[in-house]
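INFO  loader      accepted 1 record
INFO  loader      residues=274
INFO  predictor   begin
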Amino acid sequence: MNNTQLLLINDMCGYGKVALSAMLPVLSHMGYRIHNLPTALVSDTLNYPKFYIHDTTEYVRQSLAIWEELGFEFDAISTGFIVTEEETRIISDFCHRRAAKGTKVFVDPIMGDNGRLYAGVPESTIGLMRDLVACADYTVPNYTEACLLTDTPMREGITAGEAHALVDAVRELGAKSVVVTSAKVDGTNAVIGYDHVAGEHFSIPFELIPVYFPGTGDTFSSVLLGRVMAGWTLQRATADAMRVVSELIARNASQQDKSAGLPIEACLDVIDGE
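INFO  predictor   done
INFO  writer      dumping tokens
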């Protein structure tokens, strides 16, 4: 029996498989003991024309205070979408305290894509995310987020040397290991990174599937988290997370309502391959 305890800090979506709704089935299937802290309650994925986001900042504040009072411990903490500046500060303080005690911290600094911040995300989020990344054992920004975090100018494509430098710039913020998704390196789509355990950089090319589902980043992060906590090297864990997402997209490419995300529970067998 796997007694590894993971705390997932992300939003909870009522309709659609994104954030906690995507991560919980993946990591439960992998055998972990999962605890969760919703940073917001969201009516449906943000890909639909209407949605409602319920702020849970006070719930997060009270829950973390009670958990610390009760002495709850976690082997790893994973953070994702955080709604308010105050909530970001609360979660960052908690992660810094836990990291100092040896808890592994995984940070997905969700704040932008395609060259800009997401709608409604203020510029001040960048600095707050830098503070959170500073205590991360592993951080998984996309290319846009990596550039925002490091004040690196964004370009359509980068060289292998520039990819190396971007990863190192994220490491300079304090993160031990880094995985940057959605990069275009020397004309090829690639996931680039640095594994602090192995002490080496890596770059893994991939074929872009021209189908979009929300929540694929959350699925990627959860597989990566699960594999790393099982002792896999970061490069191997990253490659497997890429495989899982690719196979899930290919299997469900004909799904009519893609805004609902991938039907994770019906496809958990994909995780069992390698």
